[in-house]
# Entry
Amino acid sequence: MIGANNIIHDPAPVVALKGIDAFAMDIELQFRVRHPSDRIPARNELIDLVYRQCIETGISLALPASSSVLVENIHTNHASQATLQELLQSNPIFADIEQAELHKLAASAKLRQYRPGAIIFEAADSASNLMIVRSGAASALYDGAEVLRLAPGAIFGQIDGVPRTTKYEALTVVETYEIDGLTLATLFKDHPEMQDNLTRHLSGITGNGSAAGSSRGEHASILRTVRGLLGK
# Structure
């Protein structure tokens, strides 16, 4: 749940083990939201995150307890871990890219690992590149404040046209695939629409930070006004 954006992380959410058998564990996720209207988005986000984490770590999902399907010779081996090509293919940004090009893009990527608290990427000091979270959770920081959490499959990085204002920090042990700017530039020549989509996506992360910074500035301005009225 550490990668979720729609739940409150302080106090921390709780994972409660309710049961276990030869095929599955029954787990209950307990969490808080900021507003009652956030309950459904938070639930949907967590279902998506749990599914993606299971895929990334090779965990097979069990049949529902209420299922009446008879399964013979069931295999309990872990499912294979998602490849970078599969992660890219599942993202709408890369939806129009041919399989051969996705394969070439995936083959050029480097797998990197970061400890909790490590700076994965700082846009102000980095050349153009693209990062895809393979496992773990990271935080996007703007002016020292968290504006977004990134889970497996999330895309971030720096390309031309995106403000260099965001820093990314590992919340857990994080594995990422890194695609260098030269490889991206070659792909952008054939697919300029993909560069536009990526620019909008990455600018959206920066936009979250700008909005948060603006909100903090407005809050400080209101406090100064109130103190002025009170003569403090």
Summary: Helices lie at 39-57, 84-89, 99-108, 181-190, 192-230.
